[in-house]
Design goal:
N-utilizing Substance Protein B Homolog, Chain A, mainly alpha
């Protein structure tokens, strides 16, 4: 892997980390995506992320949040409002990517979200995220999952 490629991957991972923080803040403080974009653009951490990805994903996830939460609600074993806000944000990111970013392989989506949960979530939250997104991938990326299972 070239240096530029690994830097791009790291920048995308850091963008997801900021997304978790922004979605957490949205849930806690009720900020709009525009307010969040303005706030996060001013942070030093923003300079080290895949800015185009962050700037595209945050408003898209916020716009689709209600629909994404309906999808998530079908995947989880408890009421949506009982989810930890961090895990809820991670599931929003993962579900959005599985539904709308078919350029990102489902295994990458799940792995990135599990790592986010390890970093920001509760002690065993990563196991829950993994289980939920595994179920989501089987329905949202059925052909891709089947192709991977076959070979």
């Amino acid at each position: 892997m070239s240096k530029a490629s690994s830097k791009g991957t790291g920048a995308r991972t850091r963008a997801r980390e900021l997304l978790v923080q922004a979605l957490y803040q949205k849930q806690i403080a009720g900020h709009s995506s525009e307010e969040l974009l303005d706030q996060f653009h001013e942070q030093a951490a923003y300079q080290r992320v895949d800015q185009a990805y962050f700037d595209e994903q945050l408003p898209a996830i916020c716009l689709a949040q209600e629909e994404l939460e309906k999808t998530i609600d079908d995947l989880i074993d408890r009421p949506l409002d009982q989810l930890d806000p961090v895990e809820r944000g991670i599931l929003l990111i993962g579900t959005y990517e599985l539904e709308s970013r078919i350029d990102i392989p489902y295994k990458v989506v799940i792995n990135e979200c599990v790592n986010l949960a390890r970093r920001f979530g509760s002690l065993d939250g990563h196991k829950y995220i993994n289980a939920c997104l595994d179920v989501a991938a089987k329905s949202l990326r059925k052909i891709e999952v089947q192709a991977n299972a076959g070979g």
